[in-house]
């Protein structure tokens, strides 16, 4: 592991994307990160707002978006279009050689349309393969891939895919050749014991502790799939995983949650 | 020139993009083209439709779009988002290793916001530099760049840029290292002597003939900037330039207009 090249993968949350100043600060910190890096973003609120402006009613089930054809178009327009290009242009202005990517371009991330069980999620994709070789080629010619949360099925269908899951899948696939640090940035200080208290962040979280906090209801809602992604990535060999506010990108910052293996 | 690698750059017109079957046929033909290739697309009507659905009134002056902030967002969403990603996914399904690109990503095409003279075009960019080295790197790792008509100013501002001009600028910049064939595909058979008669296409068009046809009004409107781009590209060393319907991509097709140097 020591000989692998370090690679940082940063997933940026929707609430930071929606706050112009917070986004600018985040991008500045991201642009200053040394070494190879990749950014992943979603952009839920912008898509919801655009959908509303177009007279569409966003549908959710258990916090997950139901993506019909019209909503898929809105997701592609906002995630892969407006947000991805705006972030790319902003990073370029900071001398960070960003390139906007989706799962479709270069067949970088292929997915399978989720099968209908109890809920028909519509055009939502579960990742099947990450094209690590092609992503490495982009990194090696000096580019900083910025991924929107859009994938494809290889048969011409674009699919909406959870951005947290994309970040984890990239981290796992690239861990074969890189020492990957996976960072989830959002508006809070980390995984909180009490969702109302930003000071209640947990410094180090192992799976047993997570299960306990989940079972007693202290960790819930959107944090569950995020943490499931984290523990899956940890198990699959990702070198370091952390969750916290954008300050996490600055060296010396101690306020965040580190996802750790079970203590022996 | 003989030793340069051939490269085909194809600009696809808006009326073909708007016709699902015509687009599918075009993409099939494009995917079958041998050798290195690049595609460029605009997408005016889709942007106009999205703008209308959002309650925005598109503004034009002399056939050129006036791009205020809201219209720029629509252009980025539709050109760089929906159309670019849909075309990329469709090409991937045809085993063509397309990657969606804009001028911002990889700083591939930088532009300068057009100065206000008589008309304020808004967020419209005139191309300043094409990053031929970075585009060559993408080609050399086996990718087929698909460019939307969005550029950036290097200071974080996205800009709407004429797709015909992007195709010509790419062709000129890449002619240093490639033998470039530049092809403008649209719904007509070529440059027509009589805009109403698709059989009146001109097989070979030189600059003097163009000037004459322009002066007597036989060539007008949107064909003028397109042909100005063609003759500029020819003068700047692009090896071959042609205009015609998508059949032009099939070898053996003789129905199109070839832009030629002045006969001696």
From TrEMBL, chains A, B:
Its EC number is 2.7.2.8. The gene is argB. GO terms for cellular component: cytoplasm. Its main location: cytoplasm. This is Acetylglutamate kinase. It is an enzyme of class 2 (transferase). Catalyzes the ATP-dependent phosphorylation of N-acetyl-L-glutamate. Residues 7-245 form the Aspartate/glutamate/uridylate kinase domain.
